[in-house]
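All the exercises in this workshop are built on plain-text protein records. An example says more than a description, so a record of this kind follows:
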Amino acid sequence: MAREHTERTERTGPGARTRRAARAGGGRRVREDHGPVRYGPPAPDPGLPVLPELAEVLAAAAGRAVPEPTGGGASLRRAATAYWARRGLHGDPERVAAAPGASPLLLALIAAHGGDVLMPRPCAAAWIPQARLLGRPAYQVPTPAECGGVPDPYALLETVRRVRAEGGSPRLLLISVVDDPTATVAPPELVREACEAAVAEGLHIVSDETWRDTLHRPQDTVLLSPAEMCPDDVTVVCDLAGALTPAAWPVAVARFPDTGRAAVDHARTLDVLTALGALVAGPVAAAAAHALHGPDPVVDRTRRSAVLHAWVAAAAHRAVLVSGALARPPQAGRHLYADLEPLRSRLADRGVTDSLELEEYLTERLGTPTPGGHRFGDELGALRVRLGTGALVGTTPEQRTEALRAERPLELPHVADALGRLEAVLTDLR
């Protein structure tokens, strides 16, 4: 059944509708930018200008002619070690690897570990394509009702046993305690149960903690890294574009366990990064190291950004519920994950019957990319969509800066107008 699930994902995953339309040779034309992996959705946009202090650090390092070594230079790795130490994860810079973005880093990690890959459903948009690029089967495991990012422990055990019974070799579990796309934070008890189940089955865990610094209510949210529970069996990954640096300056870091087996995995990861030529640009490394050390301007920007997106995400969530659709309350990040199944009949009247058509419908009406759930491994027939909040905080640097500094951003005319447009599009489907 697990193998059948993978084949079903191939039939309904990103690009499936485009392939079917091409084979059919007719019918409704599907736009080229709705399906191919190369047009997949990026991480949710912060909608904020570059922090001036980081721009100054980058500019000051622009004259660096020598590239960073594979895995990042000593300064960047020390800064990453300090970043994790402030969050209770102590370690050695020699156990850190950096890459120009989360995608090449995750690709190298998957290649280094070998075997089949397991991940929650839904999951980050890049995870399934990267496993497939390496020719690895990717098995998705259902998540519990209260959150995404971490699989249900019993479903995880059942999936592992089925895969092995069919000749597979599951070795790696990808999870996201602070999740994209669902914008939820997994409770510590669930994280512990899932991690203990994975370790008991011999799986290594890669914990994507890109969004851990974007909690909407950090004083009310308990966030526990899997590396705190299973320190010998968890590699932590963080894409700095989540909270610290602009997406245009790609850099991500990984923290490996302090074990002999992890040392081998670290070396293999560096080998893959070398083969890919995946080196962090020198000026970007300088800015990233500065941000990772947590200077006051970066900390203040991170806090203000989280507060702004908390306000906007809560308002967007209310608009979803008022329309009759469903969504878990967003707890982190710059997005929420809406389920428009209750509106299926009205959507069908408009020719929308699956998440690809829903993506096209909402993208056109909202004027901003609105990726459907199929991008994240959900069934094509499900009417789920990720709604970003970055487009709601303003369309110009001036508007975005004003929203960032406002005590009541929802009262700003441009923010109120953008939220009103979202509510009107959704309410029209009631």
User: Anything to note?
Assistant: The first strand starts at residue 96 and ends at 99. The CA atoms of residues 372 and 385 lie 4 Å apart. The first helix runs from residue 2 to 12.
